[in-house]
Specification:
Number of domains: 2
Distance between the termini: 60 Å
Structural class: alpha+beta
Helix content: 25-40%
Number of helices: 7
């Protein structure tokens, strides 16, 4: 294969960036056409590097990448958007990091997921005007919907029966993947969800992302929802969500 055939473009977002070698950066990109990509940007940590601006976390850019035998290499970067508002305060930063971390854990290298790319970049823009934690919850629910692993919220995930409307609290079974009735409650890992939290999660699934600021969600409810989604996603993808834990502590501190 000639070198020309080994070059490819990627319209992508940086969802992870870490030091690599003496002056390089190893970046994880999520692209519109190619899904998740791992590539090294040689010399990107040098002050005068032309690639420096294109390897920062959350950057949206057009990348020209050389396909290597073991690791791809970034040849050129044309930045499109750096999302400076994502660094404006810690809550926005953690929410964007939570989305990026979840996206990385939930996807496979070189498996196209155009809908997830659009969802992610839309949420990055919306973080400038929306509640970061609320948008993170909506993002997680929509990501699981796209991947076909959405938690069951309207009936018992085990027996399929409708949940009793009179209950003040419901049980969310993490291993089963959704809410369960009292008869199907098992000894596996489960969380307690208040009725309002479960109803709000269902509402988040159908609400327009651009109108989330119209919804009112008290801190205790948002904490409960994020704790549930974190546990579900960590169990499903078998990896911890470190940025989620930090963000959840911030919400708890506000209560």
């Amino acid at each position: 294969m000639s070198d020309d055939h080994k070059l490819y473009h990627a319209d992508a977002i940086v969802i992870r960036s870490r030091e690599f070698g003496e002056s390089d950066r190893l970046i994880t990109l999520f692209s519109r056409e190619r899904g998740r990509i791992e590539a090294v940007a040689k010399g990107a940590r040098k002050p005068k590097s032309r690639q420096r601006a294109g390897v920062q976390l959350f950057t949206y850019a057009d990348y020209l990448i050389y396909r290597g035998r073991n690791l791809d290499t970034v040849n050129q970067v044309s930045p499109k958007e750096s999302f400076p508002h994502l660094w404006a305060n810690l809550e926005q930063t953690l929410s964007a990091a939570g989305m990026a971390e979840l996206l990385e854990h939930a996807t496979i290298v070189h498996q196209p997921q155009g809908e997830l790319f659009t969802l992610t970049i839309t949420c990055f823009y919306l973080l400038e005007q929306m509640s970061p934690s609320l948008l993170l919850a909506a993002y997680a629910l929509r990501l699981t919907t796209v991947l076909g692993i959405i938690p069951v919220l309207d009936c018992c995930v085990v027996c399929g029966s409708r949940l009793e409307a009179s209950l003040e609290r419901y049980i969310f079974d993490v291993s089963a993947g959704g809410a369960v009735c009292l008869h199907c409650r098992s000894g596996s890992r489960h969380l307690s969800l208040r009725a309002g939290s479960l109803a709000f999660m269902r509402r988040l699934l159908i609400s327009d992302l651009r109108q989330l600021d119209r919804l009112r969600c008290p801190a205790w409810m948002l904490q409960e929802i994020l704790d549930t989604l974190q546990a579900f996603c960590e169990h499903t993808f078998e990896k911890p969500l470190k940025s989620w834990k930090i963000g959840n502590r911030m919400i708890a501190a506000k209560e």
